[in-house]
Design goal:
The protein is of the alpha+beta class and 145 residues long. It has four helices and six strands. The two termini are 32 Å apart.
């Protein structure tokens, strides 16, 4: 989970739309396996408790933004990431967190998830621009054997 909704690890239990496997930009139903602990000791932790919206065992929707399995693009290139990652959503399809950390595949933009694209942290975007990478085309090149 790459947002600040409070979930750290989730498990997919259903793919919305009836597909057998989820791919980039697909919506899934998942259960929270590990959540960020909530401290209720001082006034500063109340802000932390407000951000931590999910707890272990919650069933919630999520959007797949990164997959280890390569996905073929229309231009013939393949996109593949080092890990699988999701952004947690509510039942209306709005993101639960207010920040997204890390890379997001361009397929999310093509599937009309522009709200989540706009939440990508600006420090990561500035790193991409500094290294000459176009936003939306950030991917790991396929290994040639």
């Amino acid at each position: 989970v790459i947002d600040n909704s409070g979930a750290l690890l989730v498990e997919c239990i259903n793919v919305i739309g009836g597909a057998r496997h989820a791919s980039l930009g697909d919506e899934i139903v998942c259960v929270v396996k590990k959540a960020r602990p909530v401290n209720v000791e001082s006034g500063a932790s109340n802000a932390q408790a407000a951000v931590s919206k999910l707890k272990k065992g919650d069933v919630q929707r999520a959007l797949v933004v990164r997959t280890k399995k390569e996905v073929r693009r229309l231009d013939g290139s393949y996109v593949r990431f080092d890990d699988n990652a999701v952004v947690m959503l509510n039942k209306q399809g709005q993101p639960l967190g207010n920040r997204v950390l890390g890379a997001i595949a361009n397929e999310c933009r093509q599937k009309r998830w522009s709200k989540i694209i706009s939440m990508v942290s600006t420090s990561f975007l500035s790193w991409l621009f500094a290294h000459g990478v176009h936003v939306g085309n950030y991917f790991q090149a396929p290994k040639v054997v």
